Amino acid sequence: PPPPQPPPVTGSKRKASDAGLSDPSKSGSSSPTSPKAEASTTAPVKKQRVDGPAQASSSGNVATASNAAVGNDTFTAGAGNKTPVKPQADAPVDAAAANKVKAITQPEIDALPNRVLKDFAELGYGNAAQLLAQSPAALKRLNETSDAGVQVREGAIHGRSHTSRNTSTQKVTVYMDPTLKQKSPEDAAGTFMFEMNNAHRRPQFDALDDDVRNKKVTSPSDYAEKKMKLEVEGMLHTGMVGRELAHGGHSELKNLGSFYTMDYMKYAKETEGKSANDKQAYRLDLAKTRMDVPHNGTSHRQVYENQFAGIR
């Protein structure tokens, strides 16, 4: 009789595919790569050393980055392999040079509103003249000096701009120190405005000198104070012009030192609501405080007292 058979296994049968061992011929994916084969495909490829010269670039006159020395500039050769020409870099922006006095064109000069501004621009202070043309207070004063025949020339005494009568024409003349062309248009415009204020008051300066000759003013210190007060009047008017330019957005207040703007603003604040006599007294006190301010090794007091001696 046949031997007894083992009892049947209960439950679901496990397929070969469940163990990941499916027949490659019946599957869409290849069999797993063997560890040995995987190592051979992922290991880094060892580069072979090639002796001999490097391959030349297709462009024979341009040096490539691969054969340029590290840390050295690269050059582009000129035509016909002549002397290499270094590439030109953009010139650095010079902020100081960008804010210097500049000349303007003749049509721009002709467009200026009065003669003294045109004369100022003709000397090369074009953008400074255009700046002053933005201030109503400046234009009013410069119209007056234009009508009075004030001249504008280049020149300096002791390194400073000045106002005097021309010895040959006897016309009141403002002389501009040429070194101002190396400064900002605000510096040049403020100096010009101050000297134009002195030119506007030239009849008062002349009358003061006559008082010395006629013995009406006999004290050197008295003469110096009176003359300083006339200059303070011009200083404060120049400061008012500077304030107009700053508040009109035509220039920055911090660049208006030559306009005496801070002096004017202090004066305006401290005399607000006061009488004309009080304002006059303030200006006289301001003149006295500026008498002994040192400048170029001297002071206004010394200069004016020497002038007094010359007039006597």
From TrEMBL:
Residues 55-67 have a biased composition (Polar residues). Residues 1-67 are annotated as: Disordered. It comes from the Bacteria. Residues 22-35 have a biased composition (Low complexity). This is Uncharacterized protein. It comes from Corallococcus exercitus. The lineage of its organism: Bacteria, Pseudomonadati, Myxococcota, Myxococcia, Myxococcales.
